[in-house]
Amino acid sequence: MSPPDSPRSRRRIVIWVAVALVLLLAAGAGAYVLLSGGDVSDPNVEFRAEPTETPTPAPAKKGADTFTWPLYGYTQTRRHWLEAPKTLAPPFRQRWAWSAHSLLEFTPAIAEGKLFVIKNNGALFALDKRTGKRRWAKNLGKLAASSPAYADGRIYATILVRDGSKNGLVAALRAKDGKKLWTKPLPSRTESSPLLVGGRMYFGSEDGTVYALDAKDGSVKWRYKASGAVKGALALSDGKLYFGDYAGRVYAIRLSNGKEVWSQSTHGAKFGTAAGQFYASPAVAYGRVYIGNTDSNVYSFSASSGKLAWRTGTGGYVYASSAVAQVAGGKPTVYVGSYDGNFYALDARSGKVRWKYKAPGRISGAATVVGGIVYFGDLQSRTTTGLNARTGRRVVRFGRGGFNPVVSDGRNLYVAGYASLAQLTPKSP
Predict the structure, then answer these.
(1) Which of 197, 204, 363, 377 is at 20 to 30 A from 145, Cα to Cα?
(2) pLDDT at position 26, please?
(3) Cβ–Cβ under 8 Å, residues 196 and 183
(4) Beta bridge partners of 40
């Protein structure tokens, strides 16, 4: 027998401890299957396949300006998916470019023939969609990191730091000319891209408060207090709002009154003894909630109960929000980037990696699926890459990028560079 302090004995102890931990995890996880790298998957958690393609508003006809991309992530579920026609594909040509002279972390909203975008310095701009020319601009504060939202002729914005304070504010402006309709100072900062539905505005803030405001005047309808800062946008499905916080918890609360339906803690950080932070916005699809974490994992929870369906690890922080789609000829897939420099396509049901693509650098912003192409930006090369959503093969790369990549009106792409916006249109009719 080896001495108790010999290298062989120490290796045996490590092996015994590892085996014991695996057995304990398996006993506590019930039906969970332990995968490589600490990943887990429970095949019994409800997964609702969509029998038909998700309906989306039809792109505007030529010469019309009725198409809207009203919210960050396009829909209330924040899936970052537009079922565009096959004609919206490379090769592209650039029609115009607008220099922001300031960092752009988020994509614009599209409505009324204009692009509405918030610069990092707190200025909100309205650009003509066809020409890129400025229609109007309003300064709302000193620092911002969110996408505006459009509803009923108004633009709504959240600001991290307002003038004369260390805290933020929210504002509503008339989309036609930028006239301020109301502003509401907040007791903390906010970078949560707003959700507009049913005449109310929903967003989170850094003191953990989730707000429901009357969209007409900014008055508070209800508040919910989370355990940590709520940085990301809220997603809506089946009358429930979903979000994560910096305490490592994921929540479902009722849209009508803010009452908690369920909350779930995570333990993917520090060898499973602590929770990471949720900066990413969730996406809701197939009866699941999908969200990335700074503990390097992507999580999937049951939307109805909060039960963990799977956890899949990457090699770095997952600040990026997921795109969730089933493109033509493909299967339900979660697309997400990581600070490990890889872009992942994950099976939406099991969390298994379908394919991954080595990016030029770290990926911080969300993915966007337009037609059969998934786009992402990276911070190192400051480019935007488009991949075949089924295979992961690269089909296009633009010389502009950084954070959140593109939005579309079904005919053109609008690419958010590190400090610029550009319209790209297919060369083929």
Answers:
(1) 197
(2) 43
(3) no
(4) 34, 311
131 has which bridge partners?
none
Tokens read off for 20 = 């014991």
As beta bridge partners, residue 183 has: 171
CB 411 within 8 A of CB 130: no
In terms of residues, how long is the chain? 429
Classify residue 5 by burial, with Cβ atoms within 10 Å: 0-12, 13-18, 19+. Answer: exposed
Q: Tokens at residue 145, please? A: 């990191």
Closest C-alpha among 427, 405, 426 to residue 416: 405
347-374 residue pLDDT tens: 999 999 999 999 999 999 999 999 999 9
In sequence order, the 6+-apart residues with CB closer than 8 A to the CB of 15 are none
Backbone phi, psi, residue 16, to 5°:
-60, -45
Distance CA 26, CA 32 (A): 7
DSSP state of 400: -
Give, in order, the Cα–Cα distances in Å from 95 to each of 92, 340, 356, 413, 415: 9, 34, 32, 10, 12
**How much is the pLDDT for 295?**
96
3-state secondary structure of 339: coil
224: helix, coil or strand?
strand
- Residue showing tokens 């988020």: 106
Tens digits of residue pLDDT in 1-60: 444 455 555 555 444 445 444 444 444 444 555 544 578 888 889 999 875 444 444 554
**Measured between alpha carbons, how far is 306 from 284 in angstroms, rounded to an integer?**
12
What six digits make up the tokens of 258? 């803010």
- Using one digit for the tens of pLDDT, what is the confidence trace for 224-258? 999 999 999 999 999 999 999 999 999 999 999 99
Reduced to 3 states (helix: H, G, I; strand: E, B; else coil), residue 10 is helix
CA-CA distance, 48 to 241, in Å (whole number)? Answer: 19
d(CA 220, CA 82): 33
Contact 398, 409 (CB under 8 A): no
Helix (H) or strand (E) holding 392: none
